[in-house]
Design brief:
single chain; alpha/beta; Rossmann fold; Dehydroquinate synthase-like, alpha domain; three-stranded mixed sheet; 13 helices; 11 strands; 48% helix
Length: 364
């Protein structure tokens, strides 16, 4: 096991990166003293794969356990399932119980579970047990929790830190090639924003990672977690202008997801990959980046198997969704743009024709 401490004062917590160690989760939670009654929020597939071992490790450490399942898709991150979970948890809760929540699954489960934990009884402890690459390197860390609204992604949310992030790399064996590839978009993002070394490692080792090589996976997961931990420590509430760099590719990426109505045509990682390419194009068009940076980024994304072109959507729908994005500030759009590998800038008020041209280029 390797631990990374996210230093946030009283809200500090460990990110544990391990392999084939799910049976140790119960003992770790016992030491945290966060409650006695675990509500595990997951989906049917993840429950079938990992529910038994998680339940056994918790029961052996003296916890009571209740499972709550939601659909295996983005539609679980909705008002409907949020309220359903809260009502079900309230029925389980009672005299003498000390409820805490475990998010067992990918980014959707993590976001939904964290949001439910943040608003039930004005906040109960929760733990992230991410089972996808995307969640292990990104969404499980940092305390941004949310549900989607009809007009946009993550529009109802809060900042609420977990008490532990427990990432067992062994769970990634259950992923399809598409799911693993999708998670790689966030890994590439970290290389672009903070680590030329990580980016070069990906260029040389992407095939090993996609084959599930344990050492390569543990290396990239630990590196990404360490980068995000440092950013979150300096700007926990995203109000100092630093944490926004983690949104590279997400402004247009989220708009693509919204325009696609969260269908499986474009997963979160695929949409982020396209958003990164669009951001790179914007940077070139306004003279903030050279063409070679964009070429390297596109080549790596293509080699990994992520989309570099798009079809089936309309430019106007993506622009309309982007205009409602919560990353607008003071009425102006705000983009994270790559200057070179390892360095990005935050740029506001990008001219709409530049944005439109960069989105349109994704279709050509």
């Amino acid at each position: 096991m390797k631990n990374i401490l996210v230093k946030l004062g009283k809200r500090s917590y460990d990110i544990t990166v391990c392999h084939d160690s799910m049976d140790k989760l119960g003992k770790l939670l016992k030491k945290l003293n966060i409650g006695t009654d675990a509500v595990i929020i997951t989906n049917p597939t993840i429950k079938r794969l990992f529910g038994k071992i998680v339940e056994e490790t918790l029961l052996s450490s003296g916890f009571k356990v209740r499972f709550e399942t939601v659909p295996d898709s983005e539609k679980a991150k909705s008002e409907k399932y949020c309220l359903k979970l809260i009502n079900n948890i309230s029925r389980f809760d009672g005299t003498g119980r000390r409820i805490f929540i475990i998010a067992l699954g990918g980014g959707v489960i993590g976001d939904l579970s964290g949001f439910v934990a943040s608003i039930y009884k004005r906040g109960v402890p929760y733990v992230q047990v991410p089972t996808t690459l995307l969640a292990q390197v990104d969404s499980s860390i940092g305390g941004k929790v949310a549900i989607d609204l009809a007009v946009g992604k993550n529009l109802a949310g809060s900042f609420y830190q977990p008490r532990l992030v427990f990432s067992d790399v062994n769970t990634l064996k259950s992923l399809s090639r598409n799911d693993l590839t999708s998670g790689m978009a966030e890994v590439v993002k970290y290389g672009i924003i903070r680590s030329p070394k990580l980016f070069t490692f990906l260029e040389k080792n992407y095939s090993k990672i996609l084959k599930g090589e344990k050492k390569a996976l543990q290396s990239i997961i630990y590196t990404c977690c360490a980068i995000k931990a440092k950013v979150v420590e300096k700007d926990e509430l995203d109000n100092k202008g630093l944490r926004v760099i983690l949104n590279l590719g997400h402004t247009i990426g989220h708009a693509i997801e919204t325009a696609a109505h969260y269908r499986k045509a474009y997963s979160h990682g695929q949409a982020v990959a396209l958003g990164i390419i669009a951001a790179s194009s914007i940077a070139e068009k306004i003279g903030m980046s050279d063409k070679d940076t964009g070429v390297r980024i596109k080549k790596l994304l293509r080699n990994i198997g992520l989309p570099v072109k798009m079809k089936g959507l309309k430019v106007k729908d993506i622009i309309s969704a982007q205009a409602r994005d919560k990353k607008f500030i003071h009425g102006k759009n705000r983009f994270v743009l790559p200057v070179k590998i390892g360095k990005v800038i935050i740029k506001e008020d990008i001219p709409m024709p530049v944005i439109k041209d960069s989105i349109s280029a994704l279709f050509s």
